């Protein structure tokens, strides 16, 4: 389509397109459809269109006020998400795909709002404060480069040149500032593809050469023995007290690996492709059967939502584009997209599986970020391998134990049960940013009824205030745990980064054992009451058993806390003091104990945690001074 044709259309008033003009636009938008993966393509396209329509509904259009014109107003947050200009790429994709002018107008307005966060050095700030973080320039630059690369013909000559010049300024900032140790590994990893793409769009060999240098350097940031990408800590090469690297699943699968895959395929870097294949296969072990990502242990868990990570872009390109290496990678791309579809309402991606049932408004950041990767998938569709869901996910067919030494984390599976036990001690940066640890059961999943346990931060904190929503109501941790309070100070095993674990698979049962102390946020063990506990998790085909015990005297009120993931509306019953049942659509969950069970009194019965964006029923089993063990069994009937 000629650039000027769309520009001429922008002068048409509020009467909209005439029928002949609309037909002409639609004919221009048509292209030959590939024959493979038709159902997945329809899912991706329909979801992207829904998201673009949702973004248009929250976009501010006021050409008389450059401070707001084009901005995406967030339904949930008081802050302005400055990266909303990234939506230029999916908007222009949808303009070309549908021939509808509203998407072109939205894309132009979204990008030209960038003047509000444009800085003299060529970067964009991540907030209206010009002193805010500007490393996110790499993401805006990729979105702009993709828009120009694929859809520059939709722009008039003057705007096309102006945008290209602006891309050049951003590119120079990235070229001058980004090194492999610039900050978290997701930034230089993303620049591997970003600089290559921008170099091709701007015909600048220096940028392409720098991308190749970064691609060589990033190869040192894969763990042994499982080749997980590490570096999501400050500094990126830091090691924990146990000698473990900083790994975050969410950022890896939804951001960094996309860049590395797209670069390696473009540059035909076979060495990197082989490394990436091994890495993707290891990351894939953490996808649950319904497409959820188990990032219960990740260093940046504070942004974990069950479908991924809140301000990243989605796993579709990395896993979909590599499905020829392992068809299960393609299954992951489909399953993830299906989960994103289930978490979408009114055109916006909600930050968790129970936002709607708990009445939580969606942050617009989730939608414009994830829109980019669906657009990228569709723009590469003709070159994709066949993608379907015939190849099972590893965790769907798993049986036994898989130990990740570099994470001190066990994945277990028996019958329909899937779970994670972790004693991972790496943290994002100095301070109290605590994901699941302490030998905790950080995920419990059942194939029949779905997610049953999912760890949260020990204490929810706005580590990135621009990129997190405040937790509604009381901050109640979702990680199953032993806890006590002494002098109003909270002590729990989930603060203990020195916990140890062992496991075995014998006589049909998987047994994971952890030894941990009850500690406070300052890493101090409780005194004058039991502090040393052994946690035993036994998984058999038909039942999951948890035992927490101590040999020390219990002088303070101590409980095992078991938050069961359950949205508002599921019926809860207590047929006897030692049993609680939760009726789910697919089956009845029965929780029994050797001591009376109680449900913590909270408004509305369910508690909600932004990590991982779910509701839970807070069940508590209290230790008795004469009975120093709590035994809990969970069955699905």
TrEMBL record:
Cross-referenced Pfam families, in alphabetical order? Answer: Ulvan_lyase_C, Ulvan_lyase_N
Q: Which residues form the Broad-specificity ulvan lyase C-terminal domain?
A: 401-636
| Highest taxon, organism lineage | Bacteria
Q: Which InterPro entries match?
A: 6-hairpin_glycosidase_sf, P29_C, P29_N
Looking up SUPFAM superfamilies in the UniProt record yields: Six-hairpin glycosidases
Tell me where in this chain the Broad-specificity ulvan lyase N-terminal domain is found: 48-395
Q: Where are the transmembrane segments?
A: none
The entry's protein name is Uncharacterized protein
Please name the source species. Arenibacter algicola
């Amino acid at each position: 389509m000629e650039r000027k044709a769309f520009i001429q259309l922008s002068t048409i008033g509020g009467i909209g397109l005439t029928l002949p003009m609309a037909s002409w636009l639609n004919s221009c938008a048509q292209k030959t459809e590939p024959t493979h993966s038709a159902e997945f393509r329809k899912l991706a396209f329909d979801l992207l269109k829904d998201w673009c329509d949702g973004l248009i509904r929250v976009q501010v259009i006021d050409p008389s006020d450059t401070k707001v014109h084009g901005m995406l107003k967030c339904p949930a947050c008081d802050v302005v998400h400055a990266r909303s200009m990234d939506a230029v790429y999916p908007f222009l994709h949808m303009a070309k795909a549908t021939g509808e002018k509203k998407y072109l107008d939205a894309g132009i307005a979204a990008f030209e709002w960038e003047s509000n966060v444009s800085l003299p050095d060529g970067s964009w700030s991540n907030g209206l404060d010009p002193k805010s973080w500007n490393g996110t320039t790499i993401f805006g630059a990729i979105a702009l480069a993709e828009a120009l690369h694929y859809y520059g013909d939709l722009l008039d000559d003057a705007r096309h040149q102006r945008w290209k010049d602006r891309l050049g300024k951003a590119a120079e900032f990235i070229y001058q500032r980004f090194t492999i140790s610039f900050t978290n590994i997701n930034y230089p990893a993303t620049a591997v593809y970003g600089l290559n793409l921008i170099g091709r769009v701007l015909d600048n060999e220096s940028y392409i050469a720098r991308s190749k240098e970064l691609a060589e350097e990033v190869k040192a940031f894969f763990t042994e023995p499982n080749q997980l990408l590490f570096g999501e800590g400050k500094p990126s090469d830091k090691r924990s007290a146990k000698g473990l690297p900083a790994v975050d699943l969410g950022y890896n699968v939804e951001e960094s690996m996309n860049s590395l895959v797209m670069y390696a395929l473009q540059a035909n870097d076979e060495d990197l492709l082989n490394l990436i294949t091994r890495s993707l296969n290891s990351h894939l072990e953490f996808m649950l059967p319904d497409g959820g990502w188990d990032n219960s242990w990740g260093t940046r868990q504070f942004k974990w939502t069950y479908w991924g990570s809140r301000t990243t872009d989605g796993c579709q390109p990395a896993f979909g584009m590599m499905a020829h290496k392992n068809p299960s990678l393609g299954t992951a791309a489909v399953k993830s997209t299906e989960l994103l579809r289930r978490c979408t309402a009114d055109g916006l991606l909600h930050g968790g599986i129970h936002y709607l049932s708990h009445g939580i408004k969606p942050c617009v950041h989730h939608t414009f970020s994830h829109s980019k990767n669906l657009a990228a998938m569709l723009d590469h569709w003709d070159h994709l391998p066949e993608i379907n869901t015939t190849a099972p996910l590893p965790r769907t067919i798993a049986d036994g134990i898989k130990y990740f030494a570099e994470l001190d984390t066990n994945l277990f599976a028996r019958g329909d049960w899937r779970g994670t036990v972790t004693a991972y001690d790496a943290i994002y940066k100095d301070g109290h940013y605590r994901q699941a640890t302490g030998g905790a059961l950080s995920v419990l999943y059942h194939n029949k009824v779905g997610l049953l346990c999912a760890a949260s931060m020990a204490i929810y904190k706005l580590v990135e205030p621009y990129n997190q929503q405040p937790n509604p109501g009381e901050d109640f941790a979702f990680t199953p745990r032993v806890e006590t309070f002494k002098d109003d100070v909270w002590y729990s095993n989930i603060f203990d980064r020195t916990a140890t674990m062992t496991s075995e698979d014998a006589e049909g049962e998987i047994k994971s054992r952890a030894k941990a102390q009850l500690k406070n946020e300052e890493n101090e063990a409780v005194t004058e009451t039991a502090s040393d506990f052994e946690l035993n998790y036994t998984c058999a085909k038909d039942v999951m058993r948890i035992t927490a015990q101590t040999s020390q005297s219990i002088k303070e009120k101590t409980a095992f806390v078991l938050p069961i993931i359950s949205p508002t509306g599921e019926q809860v019953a207590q047929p006897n003091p030692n049993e609680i049942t939760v009726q789910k659509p697919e089956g009845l969950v029965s929780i029994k104990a050797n001591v009376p069970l109680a449900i913590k009194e909270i408004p509305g019965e369910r508690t909600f945690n932004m990590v991982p964006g779910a509701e839970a029923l807070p069940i508590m089993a209290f230790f008795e001074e004469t009975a120093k063990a709590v035994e809990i069994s969970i069955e699905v009937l």
